[in-house]
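Batch manifest, entry 17 of 40.
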Amino acid sequence: AFGVTFAIGNNINEYGHMVLFKPLLDQLNDALKGNSFTEQESVFISEGERVFETSFSPICKDNNVIGVSVISREITELSYYTRLGKSKFRELQVLNTLSSKIAQANTVDEMFEECTRIVRESLAPARCWFMFLDKKTGVLCRHRSSHCDPDDSTQIIIRMDRGITSWVAKHGISKFVPDTSVDPDYFEVDIETRSELCVPIIVSDKVYGVINLEASTVNAFASEDEQLLKTIANHIASSIERINLFEKTERTSREMSALYKTALVTSNELDSNVLVDRLYEQILEFFKPDTFLLALYDHKTHEMELLMADATGNKLPELTNKQLTIKETGLMTWVMKTRQTLITQELRVDKLPEVAIYDEKANNGSWLGTWLVGRDHLLGAISMQTHKANAFDEDHKQLLVSMAGQVAIALENARLFEAEKQRIKELAAISTLSLAMREARDRKELLSILLDELAKTVQADAIALVTKDSITHQQLIEIAAGKWALTSNNSIPDELIISDSVWKSTSPVMINDVSSDDQLSTSTWMKGIDSIIGLPLSLQGETIGILWLGRKESFSDEEIRILTALADIAASAIRRTTLNDQTTRQLQQLASLHDIDLAITGSSDIKVTLDFLLGSALTQLEMDGAMTLMDAH
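Output type: structure tokens
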């Protein structure tokens, strides 16, 4: 047995010095001491790579063990296949668990977290790292699932020019290092690492990342471990492709849905405010920005009007509808002027255009913006920002450009519709005022109609017409209505007196916040009134009066345009009525003089003549009394 010839009758204990016999002899001596066994038992003995199975059965007489029958055979090949079977069984168990878990993962992060847990449980390394290759920076970054301590947020980044993981990522083949102290490619990250096993994760024929196992002992991993890790890497690669395909399909579906919804909104809505709100709903759903801005460019003033300013789902009233200079809008100005879509992954890191930044460098994160162009001219720009780096990609960029094209056309249509609607409103107001004033028989009636119609047009709480005395040049309230009704035929208060330079101007005087004016805020005239506007009634360069209107709400640009147009019509009507009154009075005076002439020449009674003269004077001069003094002689 075992290459040794035994002589019958020899004491087998003489062979106790042989290493192979020692386990067997111990078992036999124990058995021969008494009834320590009654059935066949086996002992497995290894010699290098060879394995032997030695079975011994009891020889009994009168229920006493008097000897042992020993049979030994070599089972090296059988042992190998047994180990191989156990290894394969373990591999199948691990892969079955892995397949089940990663099939349920909806994201790459979820999949890596499950894989990290399974690899740690099955291979029990000291450290298990999943690292992905950052294509932009060309470095390996440790995935967050590799942190053993949940509170450890330290990011490990490895350059591609050093270390086992970099070598594997660069060459795309696995590498086992039994002893890290003698491997020239090893780069020490953890002083306790003595052996390392690293395999690549290859997705679509390109290295996506690596799985790296480290142990605190030399030669800690076997070939079966390497094969299992390769199989796990292949499963991970397939899962990544599946998840990427699913995410791409889902994203394409969301993009198509977003474009479809945007098309519905832009084709059915002509109110620009509603249109912008609907657009923001789509932006918020798909891009999830922390800040969203939409600005329109004014070609006359070369300023930008923020049509919408929103942060984390809340509108910013201090910015909404605010006029900003070109310098204040920063990156939005750049995309508008260059007509290029700009995407930055990290505002503090990426090289930005040399423009004045509107509070964009103050915060880190991603920024995405594009321009809005109408049929033949620039409309404005859209921008969004998140506090998270690398939040936007080329797909986001293309989607925003597509949405911006739809929105630009819709905004232009909405503005044209609103302009036409405003024009119709102005014409209606002009027509109504013209018809109403046409019925006036004199200046007093005309002014009364004018004030009523203007107050109705803009829902004014107070209105007054201020004119100048032709002799004293004192500013007087000729007629007033609303809260100022009791001030008719009175002098205007000092706080509303207009300087000569402003009086001669044809531009409206606008005060949107009365409380900000030291004089007006304390005036009894301004009680219950927060905004006033003064409209010059000018005709051929001459101002014949100022129309003052007041109310709680401020006056919009559209209302100012309507009031300015109505003021021009009112000035012409007042001048025409004034000339008509003067002509009528002159005709009446001529008729009266003619009657007086007839009375004087046709009457011989002086008393009758004088009575007629006094009556005509009272009528023509609108006096309350008259008398004639004559010399008695």
